[in-house]
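Demo today. Your pick:
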Amino acid sequence: MKILIVDDEKMIRNVLREYVEFEGNEAYEAEDGLQAVRMCKENDYDLILMDVMMPGLDGFSAVKEIRKTKDIPVIMLSARGEEYDKLFGFEVGADDYVTKPFSPKEVMARIAAVTKRHRAGSPPSREIVKFEGLEIDMAGRNVYVDGEKLELTPKEYELLFYLVKNNGIALSREKLLSDVWGFDFFGDDRTVDTHIKMLRSSLKGYRKFIVTLRGLGYKFEA
């Protein structure tokens, strides 16, 4: 895999590069968010390790820019471990969030987990489903509302696809956390609620298909 390491601290980049290359991957480096955005416009990467606090363009802003053109799994690295920061990271499109100081071995384990989930979330065959004016292209990862293409975050795509694949099935918040975010995710029920709120807002009038099950979770019903 080609992995882009983005951090303004050279020592951290060196340590991560050593582990990334030891596992047989190709490592590339960027010193800040601006350089990372430029590199992603010119090249394709399989995963990005993105520091949050950097001069110039911070990690959150860099991820938002990269997400406009590329769907690359991102693991955020930050010394800030507050829940707000973690939730914001997921809202801008991050797939995982590791708090500094971290174990390089843990980072490599998370890379393997995120990569596995990302590949599993890309169906090999073409599958397009329609519910009134809501059209969902599973393989192409495209969603249309009355013919207009939506720009969703990677996690919104995964959540919607999972709900649609389980059409009519009641899904608890714990089940959604386990299957969409991964069994080792550190978040809580509010993470699911936050993303459901974002997804409903994006779906506009077709938010009606996502039904709240009081005291349990949600289900897609169409």
In short: The two ends are 39 Å apart (CA to CA). The helical segments are 10-22, 33-42, 59-67, 83-91, 104-120, 154-165, 173-181, 189-203. The mean pLDDT is 86.
